[in-house]
Specification:
This protein has 313 residues and is an alpha/beta fold. The chain contains 13 helices and 5 strands. It folds into 2 domains: 171 residues, no CATH class; 79 residues, no CATH class. A 5-stranded mixed β-sheet has the order 1-2-3-4-5. Helix 4 links the parallel strand 3 and strand 4. The mean pLDDT is 88.
Length: 313
């Protein structure tokens, strides 16, 4: 069990909810023809999510209001954080677009519908093979006469398959490149490749921390890794950070201590309901998944070494 629920969702939203980073992404990755009619200075995040509850473990979304061709419009980000693509994502997008239209025009029944541009972000290792247009889901659409297709809905979405980006294709500010590079490699099975990405990203934070909120984003970055890569020991992250700078390793240790405290608090809460010992065991299990050493777990939980080793086995 991860100490943080839905780590992909949190990493995605904490990064792109920052208006500066969202604008940076759009400036670098929207087609120029779309950029020409969008006023990026008017972008405002919307609080609503349109993901069905049963899909929240696989998808995240963000909606931004902006001016498109001098009128009210929206940019809708759908982030698929599974390692494989959904075959009918265009149909899923259609439902969300309809929901947005209905919500935004409820009080204006006679007004025209605003423009909504859908963007899909994907970072799985399985090749994207889902149709990029809704019509691609309709059986033998290309064989139908115009007299029929005129009566069928259709639209295309913009796809950003981050897993296929080379380092040269990762554009934008330091923060955006750190975000995209980690998304690209978070599922990487080759430890050497992932550790190279981790090293490069930690080095990049030296420049980012000179900007606003750099330290806070480093915590978001480390938490995402520690909660997503259960195969990566905390000690590995710590030693890598220590090679780069003492300050960076101290920041990693501080984050680990916060996770321990949060885990203890959750364990104590569960302990009140299920029994204190069981609560401590759940905390110890979480800390083991983070790769913390036995000594630190013993101090944090008060369990015996035999109890912790039994969990390890």
């Amino acid at each position: 069990m991860s100490l943080i629920h839905k780590p992909h969702d949190k990493f995605f939203k904490e990064t792109l909810s920052d208006i500066g980073t969202a604008k940076d992404f759009l400036q670098n990755y929207l087609p120029q023809e779309i950029l020409d009619i969008i006023d990026l200075e008017t972008i405002t995040p919307q609080k609503d999510s349109y993901i069905e509850k049963e899909l929240e473990e696989s998808f995240s979304d963000l909606l931004f209001q902006t001016k498109i061709n001098h009128k009210e419009g929206y940019l809708y980000f759908l982030f698929e954080h599974k390692s494989y693509p959904s075959p009918k994502i265009a149909l899923q997008l259609l439902k969300y677009i309809l929901n947005i239209w209905e919500q935004k025009t409820t009080d204006r029944p006679t007004s025209k519908l605003p423009v909504i541009i859908p963007l899909v972000v994907y970072h799985g290792k399985v090749r994207w093979n889902s149709p990029l247009k809704l019509s691609g889901l309709i059986d033998a659409y290309e064989q139908l006469p115009l007299a029929v297709t005129n009566h069928l809905p259709d639209f295309a979405y913009l796809l950003y398959n981050i897993s296929g980006y080379s380092n040269d294709e990762l554009k934008g500010s330091i923060k955006l490149r750190i975000f995209l590079k980690l998304l690209r490699d978070i599922f990487e099975q080759d430890d050497r490749t992932f550790l190279t990405t981790l090293r490069e990203s930690i080095l990049a934070f030296d420049q980012l921390e000179k900007q606003d909120h750099g330290l806070e984003y480093f915590e978001t970055f480390i938490r995402y890794i520690m909660n997503t890569r259960n195969d990566l020991a905390f000690q590995t992250i710590y030693e890598l950070a220590k090679e780069i700078s003492l300050e960076r390793s101290e920041a990693v240790m501080t984050i680990a201590e916060k996770l321990i405290t949060e885990g203890m608090e959750k364990g104590m809460e569960k302990g009140m309901e299920k029994g204190m010992e069981k609560g401590k065991l759940e905390v110890a299990e979480n800390l083991l998944r983070l790769g913390l050493g036995i000594d630190m777990i013993l101090k944090a939980t008060g369990l015996t070494e035999d109890e912790v080793r039994e969990l390890m086995n």
